[in-house]
Amino acid sequence: MTVSESPAVSAPGIRLPSAPPLALLLDVDGPVASPVTRDVKPGIIADLVALAAAGIPVIFNTGRSDAFIREQVMEPMIAAGIPAGTVIHAICEKGAVWFSYTSAGPGPIHVDRELAVPAAYGDDVRRLVAEDYAAHMFFDETKRAMVSVEQHINVPSADYLAEQKLFDAEAMELMARHGLGVVRLDHHAPNSDDEVDYRVDPTIISTDIESVRLGKDLGASRAVELLAAQGITPQAWRTVGDSRTDYAMADWLHHNDHSVKHVDVRPADGVPSKPYPVLTAADLGLEPTVIHDDAGGAFLRAWREALDA
Ligand SMILES: [Mg+2]
Fold it and tell me: Alpha helix (H) ranges present in the chain?
């Protein structure tokens, strides 16, 4: 893979190539940030900066808040040296919130208010966590549209996952008390009008409570729009994730006639049959034990080296 087009220089900034060979659409927790420490290794930051500087669009598509992305990804990338004229997009809260940043820092934060969980419900969840679950988890105050409750880093995973089941059940009950229809995995609890507007989505480190309209597919559609607004049409996409729900990025891109390969950095759940290629660490000749950000980092390094080749 080579970047064949040299960026056209135009005052006042440097324009990206309009048809880069690749665009990267990256889940953050797992492939970029360690699910254990929750932060991003310096080598990954360096490769993200190098890829973006070479004109490869780097777009994050995460359930995390914009505050998390600013702190864990944007600030280290700026410190590592993003060239002037390079724009990074971050789609947060599964498509409900988005912003872009450059070496000068973040642009305006966009929030789709129609996709927010009612504030009164969020207030009740905050109270529930404070009263009954504070030893295992905390309420994420940085979310603007979702309600997220996350494992304390110092709590063993098995202890958290056991407590999370209890919390999720109470969060579902609270939804009913607010007259909100909700679904969790295969559990279906419509409201009195037989509507399901919200879902409870447990991950290995958190529970997200969100509009059913949010998802990695919404994030993918926003990513295409954000690049189109810059006049950028990538020749191909690589989506990267550690969860089954991350395949929705590639599903959406494929369905909308974009060339895409999906990288699964935690294929232990099994790799589903898809109409597009799915890559794992084994495709880089790595052991199956190489997962999460070790696998994500290896793919970023491979793409960076392909640019230099
Ligand atoms: Mg993830």
Answer: 42-53, 66-69, 75-80, 119-128, 157-177, 216-229, 247-255, 292-308
